[in-house]
Structure formats: structure tokens, C-alpha cells
Specification:
Shape: globular
CATH topology of the largest domain: Rossmann fold
Oligomer: single chain
Distance between the termini: 32 Å
Structural class: alpha/beta
Largest sheet: 9 strands, mixed
Family: Belongs to the glycosyltransferase 1 family. Bacterial/plant glycogen synthase subfamily.
Protein name: starch synthase
Helix content: 25-40%
Bound molecules: adenosine-5'-diphosphate
CATH class of the largest domain: Alpha Beta
Number of domains: 2
Number of strands: 15
């Protein structure tokens, strides 16, 4: 085994405000947990510093215990420690109640709350004498770490630490993102195509020399149809047809849909402009016209949009109750059953930095139907049009996609997908098997992050 040089372990600290499954709002929460686990599996030391929200899902925290406290910002900050998905997490609980608002986002002044948390996190490292190699911060919400570190903490004995900043979504808090881009040693975003799409944005453009696209992965232990307590029978690509059939029946049963052999289109999404709401609605009607079933799991932070979908749900449940079900809440267990029980997962986003739902869909043998943007473009290769582009990635085509942001676009992809299901079931099943066998894990992206962390240390 000569020639294999063992890398010395690096110490990486994430400072973040979302983390699956204890406080997940969207993909950022998945990424913090699953990237950390992948890097830890490569034998590096990873810690997460996280707010001790009052709304944490504590049932997923093991061995939670109080460690100590320190004073900062005119208050006492209590430090708790616990394990989440085998990751070591420090929970900070400022006694001024700044993270006791019953929610992650949308309560009082988020920028002020998270700014306070970022500052408290650096103070925790400083007072504890911790000197990580890398501090990794995420989006606008922990962007202040970048400049607070470079303006202050770097000079308080944390001089060997480097800052890596990841943009998960440039839509929110671009001013903070611009500033963190300027201060960070290295910056990333979550796919190559999104990196190109935002390269001209004034928040990013001045710092392209340190900006890289690294695709997100999914955690194969958390998303595993062979070991998933929410599914009726475990399955792999070997028994995908049987496994998905059982899941489809369980899904139909649970949602009160007619138990019949019809194509099921699933949608699992935050309901916001980004996700292509008008295309989602159109696709629901188109699927019903083509005699399919449709299941939507989603919730809208904007009450007007939520209300709009409640009305649509009432209408559909009365006119097409046996074939359409809209579940307008956040429901992790149900999401697993939909990923497994659907034939197709539709993701018609207007923009999508990476997108995790299409990757999870494939892990469960569901075929993605997506709009060609950002990470969706990088991960879904159309069976009719993208053979060469897939081959360049060492892959075979794995789904259906479309351009444009109008109903004609989504129809083009959805019609071909449904026809494939109706007209060639054997071929369709071989496609399900194929997508399950593609590797959308963190295996490769985690190595790319390690390379980036090493490059940051030399910076
Ligand atoms: P974004 O971060 O923009 O919301 P991603 O595709 O990156 O989009 O991540 C979305 C994540 O949230 C996926 O893991 C998806 O399964 C999950 N998700 C979205 N909406 C719901 C919901 N209503 N119930 C359960 N899980 C959801």
C-alpha cells in the first residue's frame, strides 16, 4: 500500500442557522448536515455551531447536555452540546431570548438575531481557545461571520483559521452575500450552472477568482429506500418495481386516492415564485387531463399563496378527489412515501441553485421532470436530447426536461414522460432502475470541498 499518504485531519466548524432534521426549512438544512457527515466520514473533525432555538426538534438530538456559559453582548450565553446524526453540535442559547421566537425565519428582525448569533459563535470559539482550520458559513444568515472574523477575531489569536462561504440562494440578502464574498478566503455555490448564472451579479462578479461551483449531494443513509421506516417494503434497484408498487399503493391508501395502476406525478416543494408556481398548477391540470394521479406536498411562507393553494385543493378534491391530493403542510415522513410511491417528481423551478428533490427522487427510482436551470440542468439529462451531455459526465440519460417558463414548456416534458409510462412500461422500469444506480451522493462533492479547504489554507 505504499504511496498512499494519509491526510492529516482538518478541523472544520460550520456556523449555520438551519440543520436537518432538527431545524430544517429547505435545502440549506440538508446540506449543512450531509456535507458535514461526508467530510467527517473522510476522517476530519467537524463541528457545528447552532442556535438553541426553542423550536428545535430535540427528539433528534442525542445526549444533549449543558456545558458552560460565557458572557457576551450584555447577556449570558449558555452552551449546550449534543449529537445530531452523529455530528457534534454546540448549541448557543443567549439568555436575552434572541433565538426563542418559535421559528427559524420570519420572527422579529432576522438579520439582527442572526447577526447576534454569528458574533456569539465567534466569541465562543475565541473564549474556548478553539482554532479551527476552516470556518464555513452559509448564505446571508451566517454571512456576518466572514467580516466579523476578518475585522476582529482573526487578530485575537485565530490567525490560522480561514473562511469559506457558500451561497445556497442568492435571492435572499444579496447585500450580506456581497460583503461575505468580499471577505471570505474561498466561496462556493451549489452547482456549476448556477455559478455561471450568477457570475454577472454585482454581489458575485468582483470575486470570481475565489468562487467555485460544487454540486450538492444527498446523504445515502438518510435517504435510503432499503432502510426507510416510512416505506412499506425495503427496496434497491434490484426490486425497484415491486418496492415502488407497494409504496404507490401505500401512498394512494394514505391520501385516499383511487388504488389503480395510473402514473403518479409528485411535487415536493416550498411554494414560492422560485419554484414555478404557475407551472406547478398547469402540470397538475395536464396530469389530470392525461388520466394520471397527482400528489403535491408543499407549503407557502406567503399566506396569499398558501390561501390560493388551499382554494385549489378544495376545488380539486371535489372534482378529482380520486386522482389529486394537495397536502399543504411540511411533512417529512410523507415526503419519503411520495419520493418512493411516485413515478415522476416534477421540479419546474424558475431558478434552482442546486435542487435536492430531483436527486432524492432518483435515489428512490422516481424519474425527474425538470426545468433546465441551475443544478437541475447539471443533474437531469433528457432521455431524448441529452445523451451526449450525459455521456460527458459518464452517465446515461435519466429524466425529462424543458426550456422556457410557460405552459408549453412544461407540457413538452410532462407529455413525453407520461407517454413513456403508458406506452413502454418495460422501458420505463429500466429507466427507474438506472436512475437508482446513479451516484448523487456526497462522495465526489466532499472531496471537492476538501480540495477547496486545503486551497483556502494556502491562501
Ligand atoms: P429549497 O432549499 O429551495 O427549498 P431544495 O430542493 O434544495 O429546495 O430542498 C428542499 C428540501 O426540502 C428537500 O429535502 C425536500 O424534500 C424538502 N421539502 C420541501 N417541501 C417540503 C414539505 N412540504 N414537506 C417535507 N419536505 C419538504
Amino acid at each position: 500500500l505504499g504511496g498512499i499518504v494519509k491526510e492529516p485531519p482538518m478541523h472544520i466548524v460550520h456556523i449555520a442557522v438551519e440543520m436537518a432534521p432538527i431545524a430544517k426549512v429547505g435545502g440549506l438544512g440538508d446540506v449543512v448536515t450531509s456535507l458535514s457527515r461526508a467530510v467527517q466520514d473522510l476522517n476530519h473533525n467537524v463541528n457545528i455551531i447552532f442556535p438553541k432555538y426553542d423550536c428545535l426538534n430535540l427528539s433528534h438530538v442525542k445526549d444533549l447536555h449543558y456545558q458552560r456559559s460565557y458572557s457576551w453582548g450584555g447577556t449570558e450565553v449558555k452552551v449546550w452540546f449534543g449529537k445530531v446524526e452523529s455530528l457534534s453540535v454546540y448549541f448557543l442559547e443567549p439568555q436575552n431570548g434572541i433565538v426563542w421566537k418559535g421559528c427559524v425565519y420570519g420572527c422579529n428582525n432576522d438579520a439582527e438575531r442572526f447577526g447576534f448569533f454569528c458574533h456569539a459563535a465567534l466569541e465562543f470559539l475565541h473564549q474556548g481557545g478553539l482554532q479551527p482550520d476552516i470556518i464555513h458559513c452559509h448564505d446571508w444568515s451566517s454571512a456576518p461571520v466572514a467580516w466579523l472574523f476578518k475585522d476582529h477575531y482573526m487578530h485575537y489569536g485565530l490567525s490560522k483559521t480561514r473562511i469559506v462561504f457558500t451561497i445556497h440562494n442568492l435571492e435572499f440578502g444579496a447585500n450580506y452575500i456581497a460583503k461575505a464574498m468580499q471577505y471570505a478566503d474561498k466561496a462556493t455555490t451549489v452547482s456549476h450552472t448556477y455559478a455561471k448564472e450568477v457570475a454577472g451579479n454585482p454581489a458575485v462578479a468582483p470575486n470570481l477568482h475565489k468562487f467555485h461551483g460544487i454540486l450538492n449531494g444527498i446523504d445515502l443513509d438518510i435517504w435510503d429506500p432499503y432502510n426507510d421506516k416510512f416505506l412499506p417494503i425495503p427496496y434497491t434497484s434490484e426490486n425497484v418495481v415491486e418496492g415502488k408498487q407497494a409504496a404507490k399503493e401505500a401512498l394512494q391508501q394514505r391520501l385516499g386516492l383511487k388504488k389503480s395502476d395510473l402514473p403518479v406525478v409528485g411535487i415536493i416543494s416550498r411554494l414560492t415564485h422560485q419554484k414555478g408556481i404557475h407551472l406547478i398548477k398547469h402540470a397538475i391540470w395536464r396530469t389530470l387531463e392525461r388520466n394520471g394521479q397527482v400528489v403535491l406536498l408543499g407549503s407557502a411562507p406567503d399566506p396569499r399563496i398558501q390561501n390560493d393553494f388551499v382554494n385549489l385543493a378544495n376545488q380539486l378534491h371535489s372534482t378529482h378527489g380520486d386522482r389529486a391530493r394537495l397536502v399543504l403542510t411540511y411533512d417529512e415522513p410523507l415526503s419519503h412515501l411520495i419520493y418512493a410511491g411516485a413515478d415522476f417528481i416534477l421540479v419546474p423551478s424558475i431558478f434552482e441553485p442546486c435542487g435536492l428533490t430531483q436527486l432524492t427522487a432518483m435515489r428512490y427510482g422516481s424519474i425527474p421532470v425538470v426545468r433546465k436551470t441551475g443544478g437541475l440542468y447539471d443533474t437531469v439529462f433528457d432521455v431524448d436530447h441529452d445523451k451526449a451531455r450525459a455521456e460527458a459526465q459518464g452517465l446515461e440519460p435519466n429524466g425529462f426536461n424543458f426550456d422556457g417558463a410557460d405552459s408549453g414548456g412544461v407540457d413538452y416534458a410532462l407529455n413525453r414522460a407520461l407517454s413513456a409510462w403508458y406506452d413502454g412500461r418495460d422501458w420505463f422500469h429500466s429507466l427507474c432502475k438506472r436512475v437508482m444506480e446513479q451516484d448523487w451522493s456526497w462522495n465526489r462533492p466532499a472531496l471537492e470541498y476538501m480540495e477547496l479547504y486545503h486551497a483556502a489554507k494556502k491562501y
